[in-house]
């Protein structure tokens, strides 16, 4: 399985915000995340980096 | 393996720009892509969407 965990960096601390993310789409100032379980959330953040081998998507607050 | 193909949409047409991408990082108006083979490129684009199950990273020109 190729889904990743999504983390949000806030004040220098990484917080896990969603597991098993398989879809991501920036929408204006927000980012839509969707998991393989159909969970969906939109978060005001921008993409910091994505490491598919490490299964990590890292977002940061603007 | 969880790497993805990266495509760039230009004038409505998807062009494959890198295979086996496992790392992506936005850098200002550009996006850094790196493959599992150590190939690396920076492209002036923004992330349109990413589908990990479909192994697709789609970028678009600004």
From TrEMBL, chains A, B:
Organism: Desulfomonile tiedjei (strain ATCC 49306 / DSM 6799 / DCB-1)
Name this polypeptide is given: Putative RNA-binding protein
Pfam family, one: CooT
InterPro entries: CooT
Superkingdom assignment: Bacteria
